[in-house]
From TrEMBL:
GO terms for molecular function: ligand-gated monoatomic ion channel activity; signaling receptor activity. The record marks K275 as: Interaction with the cone snail toxin Con-ikot-ikot. This is Glutamate receptor. Residues 1-24 form the signal peptide.
Amino acid sequence: MKVLLGVIVCTMVLLLSLRSCAAAMRPDLTITTIKQDPYTMSKGSQMEGYCMDLLSELAKKLDFKYNVHLVKDGSYGRQDESGAWNGMIGEVVRKEADLAIAPLTLTAAREKAVGMTKPFMQTGISILLRKDISEEAGIFDFLTPFSVETWVGILAAYLGTAISICVVARLSPCEWSQPQTEENSFTFSHSLWYTAGALTLQGAGPHPKALSGRIICCTWWLFGLVLLACYFSNLSTSQGSDSNQLMVKGFEDLANQQGIEYGTLSGSSTLAFFKNSNNPTYRRIYEHMERAKSFVSSMDEGVRRAKEGNFAFIGESVSLDLVVARHCELVRVHEVIGMRGYSIAGTLGSPMLKNLSVAILELSEAGELAYLRSKWWASSCMADPAKASPLQPHSLKGMFLVLALGLGLGVLLAVLELTTKSRSNAGEQRKSYCTVLSDELSQRLRTTTTTTNKKRSQETADKDKA
């Protein structure tokens, strides 16, 4: 028994010793970083931010300890004429730090001086400007509340209603009882005028007397009221949202206009991109900035000038997204060029870099990097109302259906009124029903202006006699 207890005690002591040795063998890394919101920020004596959370996750995965300090000269890392590096890259090159974690852009020059991991964040170059820099209203902007298909449907409904009123006014005996001698008020031209008058809420007399004609007119008036309500509602919404429609939608627009000044951060990798590019548009942008000396000395200055208006600040899209989240009057254009990544820098040949790259990929595949992005880039702005989109035909399909039913009902009633009168006349005249109905249809549908022509002929004859 004593032997067993001794073995257990020795085993426990051995395990504790091994754990202590393992803890002692854990690497203690020196990390250099730079203060930039929201990557690294001071919170009392501690530091927080996207990079600090990322570093914590990497330390858990790779089981290392670390000490973080801010870079002494407050620079990211630039090579001077003698080939020496400053900033965080310089500290890693001089082995004053094992790793540099910050929004460090992966470039060819840096890759030669230090080792770089797989990017933990993708970025590019975009444009920041104020929302109220809008384009001039177009001549036909009043048509924007409805889509082209909806306008075509409205035109078809208008013509269909006018034709239905004209046909019903001819067929219905209550509207046109004596086609041989009586003039028909609802000619096709008058039907078009009457239908258009209903859309302006004014009306145009005379009004139909028959029940069939009144059903069609009431249905059209209802359709017109709903149509006008939808039009003015969508027009006011679209006019309000159009104020946020940017005149500059990309770098091509920026290069082709003269009304808005633009610039970027002096000495930045963004400026180097335009300077070294062979793209004609990007070259024009660089030459304009060089000629106008429109560079800014800091990110804050670029944001301030953009908020003042008539200035577009060109910078990295990730940083501009953060600015937009904090300053609600600013907006970033959708176009992003020159895609590149932010990486962690380490000493050349360090075996740690391979493990860090694998860990970064694992965090990306697990959605952790996306979560950190949403956490630190959360917007403090109230959501803007969604821009009103043109109404499609399916949005008004209920009213189109009601109108179609009203037109069909009106024409059907007119036909029933005519057949009823034809049946009654057939009994009085002792003719067949089909013969009377055929005569009525022939007189009402083929005779267009007989009465008018007779009156004009009579007036002409009277004038000749006089």
